């Protein structure tokens, strides 16, 4: 999975999310077949927002773009400070299937954010939080949520250290753990050294 930190210029200062106060992971679609993160940013600027309202955006090829990241979103009325919004490329009122790459990425990102935001109460489509047809009638959110809650043996013991280092401000985009000197060992050592 490729994660790209966007270089978006917001029209004002964004307020940081408080991890302990994030209770909801909210799934969206962009209601367009294709778009770049820059397209979304422009649409949201034109709508009067500070810029891209989604915390993350996942393209059909599975690439993840960080939009607002760990800042208040502009993506779900009433839940911009206690929700984290992940938008999917596509219009799932027309498109009847999500790509395998996009599906795998959204599952991995939801699992990751369940570790980051320890007080998650619910994962769901935008439409369970506010009246809307987002994320589209053909996106099977129930399967996504079920798969996000499945125990996953792929989660490595080093993930908790990676999450901790990210919380401390380290920029780590690659989630590989089993290099010759494993990244997990480096994360664990550095995490313990910093405490």
Textual characterization of the structure:
This protein has 195 residues and is α/β, with parallel strands linked by helices. It folds into 2 domains: 3-149, 3-Layer(aba) Sandwich (Lysozyme-like); 159-194, no CATH class. The protein is 29% helix and 13% strand. The protein is built from 5 helices and 6 strands; from the N terminus they run E-E-H-E-E-E-H-E-H-H-H. The chain is globular and about 50 Å long. The two termini are 30 Å apart. 34% of the residues are buried.
Note the gap between the termini. 30 Å
Counted by DSSP, the helix tally is: 5
- What class, by secondary structure content? alpha/beta
CATH topology of the largest domain: Lysozyme-like
Number of domains: 2
Number of strands: 6
H/E topology pattern: EEHEEEHEHHH
Second-tier CATH architecture of the largest domain: 3-Layer(aba) Sandwich
Topology overview:
Layout: E1 3-5, E2 24-29, H1 37-46, E3 56-58, E4 64-66, E5 83-88, H2 100-116, E6 122-125, H3 141-149, H4 159-167, H5 183-194
Parallel strand pairs: 1-4, 2-5, 2-6, 3-5
Antiparallel strand pairs: 3-4
What is the gist of this entry?
The chain is an alpha/beta fold.
Q: What attributes characterize this protein structure?
A:
29% helix; 13% strand; globular; alpha/beta; single chain; Lysozyme-like; 195 residues; 5 helices
């Amino acid at each position: 999975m490729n994660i790209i930190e966007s270089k978006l210029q917001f029209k004002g200062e964004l307020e940081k999310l408080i991890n302990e106060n994030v209770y909801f992971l909210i799934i969206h679609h962009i209601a367009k077949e294709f778009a770049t993160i820059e397209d979304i940013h422009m649409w949201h600027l034109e709508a009067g927002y500070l810029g891209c309202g989604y915390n993350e955006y996942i393209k059909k090829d599975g690439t993840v773009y960080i939009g607002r990241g760990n800042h208040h979103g502009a993506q779900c009325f009433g839940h911009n400070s206690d929700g984290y919004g992940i938008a999917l490329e596509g219009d799932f009122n027309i498109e009847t299937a999500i790509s395998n790459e996009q599906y795998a990425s959204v599952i991995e990102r939801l699992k990751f954010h369940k570790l980051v935001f320890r007080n998650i109460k619910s994962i769901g489509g935008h439409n369970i939080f506010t009246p809307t047809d987002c994320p589209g009638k053909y996106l099977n959110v129930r399967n996504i949520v079920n798969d996000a809650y499945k125990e996953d043996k792929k989660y490595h013991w080093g993930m908790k250290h990676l999450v901790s280092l990210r919380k401390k401000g380290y920029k780590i985009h690659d989630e590989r753990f089993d290099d010759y000197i494993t990244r997990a060992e480096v994360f664990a050592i550095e995490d313990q050294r910093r405490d």
